[in-house]
Amino acid sequence: MFLDPVLVAFGVMAVGAIFQKTIGFDHKNISDLVLYVTGPALIFVALYSHRIYASELYILTLAAIAVMFASGIFAFFAFSAIGYKNSGIILPSMFMNSGYLGYPVALFALGEIGLQKAIIFDTVETILLFTLGIFLVHNKGETVKGRIKAVFSLPLIYVIFLGLLFNFTAVPLPVTLIDALSMVGSATIPLALLALGGRLVTLELAALKVPLLAVFSRIVVGGIAGFVFVKIFALEGVVASVVLLLSVMPPAVNSYVLNEKFSADPHNAASAVLIGTLFSIISIAAVLAAVS
User: According to Swiss-Prot or TrEMBL, what is its membrane topology (predicted)?
Assistant: First the structure.
């Protein structure tokens, strides 16, 4: 059943929401664990274990950039038209949840190959979010040099480089090492979904006009951009499915986190994440039905 991947992902998120409401847990510790330990392990193994073709890397990178900038540019002009000037709202309008939600849905729906291609797409999104995104929401207390330094303090940048390097050079690594990293990386998806579910129940809805426009930009405009990209480049198979699937993902949770950190537009960003995540049940199911 094409809804199974959606139900599994949202089921785990529901467990996280219930756990947050009844017992509570530290989102920062879990986020740090995913960001600095399990996530890098998952990404390295995925990039190393399956052969990556340069043409595929190129097309997925181009697709991610095209989808995000289509959403971001539309949002910029849409918010300018209604006189809303806070640039922080561009983040949930532009950046999708291609990791926390995209990984498990791609894995459950398309298998390990689908997950690998989703990771390539997500690495582009992550790099842009933590570079361009930080520039959009930064405050005057943070220098350009400080923001660039923060980007390169994340292990993700180096893990991506090493994973692609070992893949393209076909350098064999000890099986024991890969098995250990696989075991650590396998904790990423359940941890991320539990954390996402817990985070969503702590968010508060602001006035709906601005967040709804952000969700429209992210899911509807992004979905149209993904569809047009697939048609223009005549993509087929798993690559086409991944582009279409990630194009309709809801706003990234980290778009809220960055707004909160830099005191930009946290309330509207939080509302957009919550509304978009709920609405994405429909958009993800629609894409899965179309590509199944």
Answer: Multi-pass membrane protein
